[in-house]
Each structure stands twice: as C-alpha cells, then as structure tokens.
Specification:
The structure is a single chain. The chain is an alpha/beta fold and 397 residues long. It folds into two domains: 149 residues, 2-Layer Sandwich (Beta-Lactamase); 206 residues, TIM Barrel. The protein is 40% helix and 21% strand. The chain is elongated. It starts with a helix and ends in a 20-residue tail after the last strand. The N terminus is likely disordered.
Length: 397
C-alpha cells in the first residue's frame, strides 16, 4: 500500500462507505481486509468488562471466531499491534487458532472511551506488513468511531421519537376530525373520512407524526389507535354513512385490525395511500379479501400523485378510487388535469369501481367534475374536517 496520497484516497473511500447504517461499518471492515490482503477483519466491543467480537468480514470459520466470542489478549490489549509472523512472535500464544499475521488498533470514541478493537487476521505470516498498514487501520478506526458516534446520536433521536409516540398513545391526546363525502349528483352525504390530529408539541402536520411513528416501528400502534377512536364514534354518524380510514399495508395485515373492525366492517372503507409501499401484495390481498368478505371496501387514495397508486389499483382491484388533490386542484382551468380525470373516470367504470374527487374547493370545480362523470367528492367547498359534537352532529356548511 502506498503512503501519502494513497492513504488519503483510501480514507476518502472509507468515508464514502458511510450511510448511517451498521452495514457501512461492515464495508469499512471489508476495505481493511482487502487493502491488507488478509483473511478476516473484525470489530470488537467491550461488554461488561469483556471484549467480544461484534462484526466480522471474511473467513471467520478458519479462525474459530464468531460474533459474541471473546477476543483473546493481546488482540484486545487496547494498543496498536503488528504481528508479521505469529509463529515466532512471543506475544502470541493463541497459535492453535491458525493465526499467521495480525494488524489491530483500538477504536476510541470522541470522548476517549475505549470501544473495542479493529483487527485484521491472516492465516499465514506476512513480512510485507509494516507501520504504514497500522496507520491505515488507525485511520479506519477513526472512521468507524465517527460512525458509532452518529449511530449513538441516531439512537438517542429514535428514543426521543418513540417516547413522543408512546406519549400520544398513553395520554389519548390524539383528536379526530371527520370530513364529509358527498354524491356529486345530488349532494347527498354518503361517508365521513376520519382524520387524526395531534394537538401537542411539537406542532406539526399529522403526516409528520405518522412518519415519525414509522421511523420507530410504531405505525401499526398509532394507526390502530386512530381507527379505534374512529370506530368508537361510528354510532354518532348517520346510519347510512360509511367511515373512511387511512391505513398502511402493515396495519391492514395485522390481526388486531381484523379484531377491531369485527361486527362493523360493512360500514368501513379502508384507504391505502400512494405513499405506503407494499412489500408483499399477496399477503395484503389475502388480508383485504378477509375484510371485504365482511363488508369492508378498499379505496386507493392519492390516485394521480404517482405510479404507486396505479400499481395498487392493478394488483388489488379496489372498490373506490380517490383522485389526489394535486389532480383536482385548479382542474376547472387546466385542460390536462381535466383530460386525465376523464380518462380515470372511464378506467374506473371499466373496473367497476367508484371514483371520489378530493380537494373540491369551489363551485366551478364541482360542476366540471360532475360533467366529467365523477360520482363522489369531498373538499373544503363541500365540508371542512370538523369534530363531531356531543350529540353526534358534524359542523357541515
């Protein structure tokens, strides 16, 4: 390995591997092993005063090393160590492990705390290894230390986020608003969409709360709390009105959801959003089939906002297609939006689905959507999201 500019290039390469995940540290291990042309690289960590192997890259079986196994002295000495020929090095007593050469350095965090060791092992002696290689591994150890610090900061951030979401769940501070949905031909009320709101600090839109819940693995918990609260008000809605709720694929396949809607599914429309990635359409389709057998309907939300919603339509055969507000906004003065809406109306007719326009903001848009054959709609012009009053009435206007 060359010195000077070569070392700088390798450092830059190592830094480029960092992407905020544990896998990036493993790539640094791979870089160390490849550049030193040795058989294995490992990162250890001190746990309860014992230093154990944490991550490995390379031929672990050859040396009998695996995650969780103790790191023998002198490899865990906390000092840089260069061994070019273990068979003739008095410091090495673990020759039965088949070690021929070794380069290792301590990994210290920014505050100086000893984290563990970054080490590289070879099965044969290697007299080409020298102090430049030790310096190179020291550079990589610094890169790993920076990454570990970032991971600690990210973990702290996740803890704060999780506490916020659990605070919402435990305090019951989430509030629901209900936005009416009308048939456009006669302006008859047909449904209400339940919309979660979070009147607590930090003040931010509901989408930010649900995004944070997703980051800490609490999407299902938060969505189940929202639909549970919405179902609790179902008796306050007009008996003919359906209840529309937005749910992610993870919640739709959860057994808890099916238990929650048992007995009321015939009044529920579950809305799958454009922004919800589907990892397993088969599992989702099976879950939706069970819900639909009990009377629930599937709506694909945000149609027109991107390709995902169209994929959802083709894979899941929805009962309802909801046009995204980005498509209906200014539709009365935009020929392209009007033409696309007309095409989607024809398409939904072919697949025997209803079409709902979101974001109707004025009478001109309402009249145009009617003329295009859109059967249902919602928006501020028809009725804003509002709380139900004590007697179950909605503040329609």
């Amino acid at each position: 390995m060359g010195a000077g500019s070569g070392l700088k290039q390798l450092l830059e390469l190592a830094r480029l591997t960092l992407d905020g995940s544990e896998a990036s540290i493993e790539r640094v291990l791979a870089l160390a092993r490849a550049q030193l042309d040795l058989d294995l690289a490992f990162l250890s960590v001190v746990l309860e005063r014992v230093e154990v192997v944490d991550l490995i890259d390379g031929e672990a079986e050859r040396f009998g090393i695996e995650p969780g196994s103790p790191v023998p002295f002198p490899f865990a000495s906390g000092e840089p160590l260069l061994v070019v020929d273990a068979a003739h090095d008095p410091r090495i007593t673990a020759r039965e492990a088949g070690i021929g050469a070794y380069v290792g350095v301590p990994v210290r965090l920014i505050d100086g705390r000893y984290y563990g060791t970054l080490g590289c092992l070879g099965s044969r002696a290697d007299w080409t290894l020298n102090t430049r290689d030790v310096k190179f591994v020291q550079v990589l150890a610094e890169v790993i230390a920076e990454q570990l610090e970032r991971q600690d900061l990210e973990l702290d951030k996740r803890r704060v986020e999780a506490r916020r979401i659990w605070g919402i769940l435990e305090s019951g501070s989430m509030r629901l608003l209900f936005q009416p949905v009308f048939s456009l031909a006669r302006l008859e009320l047909v449904a209400f969409e339940a919309l979660a709101r979070f009147p607590v600090e930090p003040w931010r839109p509901p989408s930010a709360w649900f995004a944070e819940a997703a980051e800490v693995g609490l999407t299902v918990d938060l969505e189940l709390a929202a639909i549970g609260a919405a179902i609790a008000r179902l008796g306050d809605l007009p008996p003919h009105a359906r209840l529309c709720v937005n749910l992610s694929p993870a919640t739709l396949v959860s057994p808890e959801l099916h238990q929650l809607v048992h007995g009321v599914a015939e009044r529920i429309d579950v809305e799958l959003t454009e922004h919800a990635p589907v990892e397993d359409y088969e599992a989702l389709s099976e879950a939706l089939t069970r819900l639909r057998e009990h009377g629930a309907r599937l709506a694909i939300d945000d149609v027109g906002a991107g390709f995902a919603s169209l994929r959802h339509i083709l894979r899941l055969a929805p009962d309802v297609v909801k046009l995204d507000v980005s498509l209906t906004r200014d539709i009365e003065v935009d020929a392209a939006r009007s033409a696309l809406t007309s095409a989607l109306v024809a398409f939904t007719t072919e697949i025997d689905a209803q079409i709902v326009a979101e974001g109707i903001e004025n009478e001109h848009a309402l009249e145009l959507l009617r003329s295009l054959g859109v059967g249902f709609g919602q928006g501020f012009f028809l009725g804003e999201p509002a709380a139900l009053t004590a007697n179950g009435q909605h503040a329609l206007h």
